[in-house]
Specification:
Helix content: under 10%
Number of domains: 2
CATH topology of the largest domain: Neuraminidase
Shape: globular
Number of strands: 24
Mean pLDDT: 98
Organism: Adineta steineri
Low-confidence stretches: none
Keywords: Kelch repeat, Repeat
Radius of gyration: 18 Å
Oligomer: single chain
Protein name: Galactose oxidase
Order of helices and strands: EEEEEEEEEEEEEEEEEEEEEEEE
Largest sheet: 4 strands, antiparallel
Number of helices: 0
Structural class: mainly beta
Pfam family, one: Kelch_1
Strand order of the largest sheet: 1-2-5-6
Length: 244
């Protein structure tokens, strides 16, 4: 495969999110520029290869998460506003291009994860709070009520970790502090530990493959490994060509 240049975004940003919407557009939200958190958002049109601005978020945020819900909405949650962790959340409608404030999380956090579960709830895990440090707490967002409820705490506090949904509906959380990993059972709201990664990682990526395996890559060096949900173990695979 090859790469081709696309049109530049309207605003340079880091620590932002990028999400594919129901209409096929890609929504980029927030981030940081010149040490200031951004509330701006823009849309990429794959058909034309161009970016257009859309409505600003209600709150400037970076190191937040964005999760697509079952309908046209996208949930943005938490993050950092330049001085403090955020517990606020808001919804973007791809149909109207507008933002609506929704319920606050119970715990302010950034560098966390969010995962949309098969039952439509959104699971938020871990992250960082400047007064508390690395978090092991988790909570669930209910799109029908716009509210958050706490669920079972992880066995290990984590930030800069990954969360991947498996074929059986469980969520695999990995790394962020060491090589540990654990599984969330949506039916019981509990966590169980699973096999350690071969390499401790943070700020890495984890992708669920068509085979059901999860590929974890980078975060410390160019190494990569595969998680086998059937055995709960990690298998080393080929290194990337560059550490990232």
């Amino acid at each position: 495969g090859t790469w081709t240049n696309a049109e530049n975004m309207n605003v340079a940003r880091a620590g932002h999110t990028a999400s594919t919407l129901a209409n096929g557009y890609v929504l980029v939200t927030g981030g940081v520029k010149n040490n200031a958190a951004l509330n701006s958002a823009e849309l990429y049109n794959p058909a034309t290869g161009t970016w257009t601005t859309t409505r600003n978020m209600n709150v400037a945020r970076a190191a937040h998460t964005a999760s697509r819900l079952a309908d046209e909405y996208l949930l943005v949650a938490g993050g950092w506003d330049g001085s403090a962790a955020l517990n606020s959340a808001e919804l973007y409608s791809s149909a109207t291009g507008t933002w609506t404030i929704t319920g606050n999380m119970n715990v302010a956090r950034y560098h966390h994860t969010t995962t949309t579960l098969a039952n439509g709830l959104v699971l938020v895990t871990g992250g960082f709070h400047i007064d508390v440090g690395i978090l092991n707490s988790a909570e669930l967002y209910n799109p029908l009520t716009g509210t958050w409820t706490t669920t079972g705490k992880m066995n290990t506090a984590r930030s800069y970790h990954t969360a991947s949904i498996l074929g059986n509906g469980y969520v695999l959380v990995a790394g962020g502090r060491d090589g540990s990993a654990e599984l969330y059972n949506p039916s019981t709201g509990t966590w169980t530990t699973t096999g350690y990664m071969n390499t401790a990682r943070y700020y890495h990526t984890a992708s669920t493959l068509a085979s059901g395996y999860v590929l974890a890559a980078g975060g410390w060096d160019g190494s990569a490994e595969l998680y086998n949900p059937s055995t709960g173990t990690w298998i080393i695979t080929a290194n990337m060509t560059a550490g990232r």
